[in-house]
């Protein structure tokens, strides 16, 4: 792995067919539990992509990468967790995968929705000062910073490993429109994490973790092409 932290973006609209044989029984059951076919499909795409990339990095067949679920539902590579960490997030349109050889990593993505109004959710996610700042803003700016703040908090909570079992009001994130920062999280243990905005016009997103580069490259994962090359090389 040339970079200590890799970030991959997948567009579900352009992904193509999933090779379901690459998933393990736990993943297949999780995919089959979705009510909507599109959710099952998105799960299949992102978990297949994760396996394909981990396979290259670890030198293990994609279907044999031992991914297990630990405390609070956080998945990791069994027996190699000290060497490699990963995290993923999926919105309706986009999947993001972060893989790190430098330590814990968390990622989150949310689609932008010009028709949404997030005002009523502000006080459940943001602490007093953050919430006051968001409430003062004009709607389109408030929506933008709400989503950026939300993805930043969730990326931190996922890097810590608790997800939102960690009360997002217990730590602050910067609420401006882009950049990279260092944030402190006191619970469940004291941690200092790098936090980087990865937002674009179509989505808000953030990555948090240790030893992140200041400007990580977000690379497009060419799903169909990667599966085709794999099939050709195993023929
Ligand atoms: C789990 C949680 C982070 C998912 O967030 P979300 O916005 O719905 O979904 P995202 O697409 O951003 O992320 C989902 C991915 O995060 C990962 N994840 C799950 N639990 C995680 C955790 N505790 N920490 C970090 N990552 C986690 C998984 O890979 C999951 O995708 P998968 O189910 O396809 O494997 C969020 O629901 C949460 O904070 N829940 C509270 C913790 C919880 O209930 N854990 C389950 C107990 S068994």
TrEMBL record:
Name used for this protein in its record: 4'-phosphopantetheinyl transferase superfamily protein
Domain 4'-phosphopantetheinyl transferase, chain residue ranges per copy: 105-191
UniProt keywords, alphabetically: Transferase
One GO MF term attached to the UniProt entry: magnesium ion binding
Protein family (similarity comment): Belongs to the P-Pant transferase superfamily. Gsp/Sfp/HetI/AcpT family.
One GO CC term, this protein: cytosol
Entry's Gene Ontology BP terms: lysine biosynthetic process via aminoadipic acid
UniProt-listed Pfam families: ACPS (PF01648)
